């Protein structure tokens, strides 16, 4: 018997009990749909996290200051200011393969303009910061190295902060009071979106780090410094140069723990996306249970079908059908159930992912890889759970089958 004829016989057998066939496929439909939807949610979260890390800029290396211990509790890196202005100047002067560097001085301050006021993040940065972050200006211009050297009271304002304080009017050229100090706004930042920690990057005011340290925060050290390598290939060399230079400057001998931490953009990305990966695997594992349940349902129904069609099997064997023909017929029935259910499940999962994205605002990403994996897995379910009933049918004795009532 050829494969096409066997397939036609299998389809006719499934159509004889349409309702039972549909109910049998339901487990596979739900399982595949759940896997597609859950994996797409996890992939969407991972892609969103990667895009937020990419918003840091290109070829970025982050240098964080050391940790501090108080009352028996140890803070994380950045909790103690161990990076000095001299460290920053040495990084710019002595490290090769660097396009730019900028320190970061972070604090929250009261902002005021007219009768509007707002508590927002004020960051002291260098003139290279905008280029490192790949952060263009919507209007105005960046402050200069001269502004940094002279601690001039100039500022760049984020989109969210500008909308809150100035509404629809152009903030460039206006004077913004930060604490009690007047700062002239020289540029409006383009919208950047949320950070990898979920905070609004556009709710910010950027000022020269010298102005922030002298006029706002009173800090004398930095919590972090951003360095941009010339290209992706030089990142490991630049990272090692930074470590060697800071260990030398901080007089850290061999065997002693560093009082700073250097992380590349790839390391930050891997750290940020680990949780998204774990969530994706967990969701896929939970949803896969439905596929296993669906496969057990197929095995159960196929065993019932073999019992119901025992005389038919005996008659076919009596007129010349071989055991492998019977095996192939029932195996094709099981695979057809799982494949059709898998195709419907793929459409259901894709639709479910779109509904979640539209109604809940979650980022989802239905990848071709997840679709192909779900399709192949559903076919494997049909083969695995359909083989035993098919083998049982193929091993029936023709005489006993014809006598079966």
Provide structural commentary.
This protein is α+β, with helices and mostly antiparallel strands and 405 residues long. The chain folds into 2 domains: 3-51 and 272-403, no CATH class; 83-258, no CATH class. Helix content is 56%, strand content 18%. Strands 4-5-10-7-9-8 form a 6-stranded mixed beta barrel. A two-stranded antiparallel sheet has the order 2-3. A hairpin with a 2-residue loop joins strand 4 (98-113) and strand 5. Helix 9 (265-308) crosses helix 11 (323-360) and helix 11 (323-360) packs antiparallel against helix 12. The relative contact order is 0.19.
Number of continuous helical runs: 13
Helical content class: 55-70%
Order of helices and strands: HHEEEHEEHEHEHEEEHEHEHHHHH
Strand order of the largest sheet: 4-5-10-7-9-8
Broad shape: elongated
> What percent strand?
15-25%
Structural class: alpha+beta
Instruction: Give the count of structural domains.
Output: 2
Low-confidence stretches: 68-79
What's the overall average pLDDT, rounded?
Answer: 80
Number of beta strands: 12
Task: Please compute the radius of gyration using only Cα atoms.
Answer: 33 Å
Layout of strands and helices, then pairs:
Blueprint: H1 3-16, H2 18-54, E1 60-65, E2 69-70, E3 73-74, H3 85-94, E4 98-113, E5 116-125, H4 129-132, E6 137-140, H5 145-149, E7 154-157, H6 159-166, E8 175-178, E9 181-189, E10 204-208, H7 209-217, E11 224-229, H8 235-249, E12 260-264, H9 265-308, H10 310-318, H11 323-360, H12 368-394, H13 398-403
Parallel strand pairs: 5-10, 7-9
Antiparallel strand pairs: 1-11, 1-12, 2-3, 4-5, 4-8, 4-11, 6-9, 7-10, 8-9
Helix pairs in contact: 1-11, 2-9, 2-11, 2-12, 3-8, 9-11, 9-12, 11-12
């Amino acid at each position: 018997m050829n494969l096409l004829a066997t397939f036609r016989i299998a389809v006719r057998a499934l159509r004889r009990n349409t309702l039972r066939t549909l109910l049998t496929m339901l487990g596979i439909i739900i399982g595949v749909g759940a896997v597609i939807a859950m994996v797409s949610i996890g992939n969407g979260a991972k892609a969103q996290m990667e895009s937020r890390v990419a918003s840091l800029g290109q070829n970025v290396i982050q240098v964080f200051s050391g940790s501090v211990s108080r009352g028996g509790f140890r803070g994380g890196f950045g909790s103690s200011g161990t990076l000095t202005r001299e460290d920053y100047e040495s990084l710019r002067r002595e490290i090769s393969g660097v396009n730019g560097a900028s320190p970061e001085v972070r604090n929250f301050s009261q902002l005021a303009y007219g009768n509007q006021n707002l508590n927002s993040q004020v960051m002291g940065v260098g003139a290279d910061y905008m280029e490192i972050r790949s952060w263009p200006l919507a209007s105005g211009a960046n402050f200069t190295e001269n502004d940094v050297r002279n601690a001039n009271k100039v500022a760049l304002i984020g989109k969210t902060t500008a909308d809150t304080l100035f509404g629809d009017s152009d903030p460039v050229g206006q004077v913004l009071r930060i604490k009690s100090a007047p700062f002239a706004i020289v540029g409006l930042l383009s919208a950047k979106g949320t950070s990898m920690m979920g905070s609004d990057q556009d709710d910010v005011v950027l000022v020269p780090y010298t102005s922030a340290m002298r006029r706002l925060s009173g800090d004398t050290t930095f919590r972090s410094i951003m360095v941009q390598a010339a290209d992706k290939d030089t990142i490991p060399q630049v990272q090692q140069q930074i470590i060697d230079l800071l260990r030398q400057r901080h007089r850290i001998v061999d065997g002693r723990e560093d009082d700073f931490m250097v992380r590349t953009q790839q390391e930050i990305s891997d750290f940020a996306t680990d949780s998204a990966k774990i969530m994706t695997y967990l969701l896929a594992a939970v949803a896969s249970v439905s596929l296993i349940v669906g496969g057990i349902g197929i095995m159960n129904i196929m065993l019932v079908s073999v019992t119901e069609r025992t005389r038919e099997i005996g008659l076919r064997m009596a007129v010349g059908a071989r055991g492998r023909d019977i095996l192939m017929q029932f195996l094709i029935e099981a695979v057809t159930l799982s494949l059709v259910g898998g195709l419907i499940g793929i459409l259901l999962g894709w639709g479910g992912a779109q509904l979640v994205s539209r109604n809940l605002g979650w980022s989802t990403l239905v990848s071709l890889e997840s679709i192909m994996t779900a399709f192949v897995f559903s076919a494997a379910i049909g083969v695995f759970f359909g083989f035993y009933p098919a083998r049982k049918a193929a091993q029936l004795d023709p005489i006993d089958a014809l006598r079966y009532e």
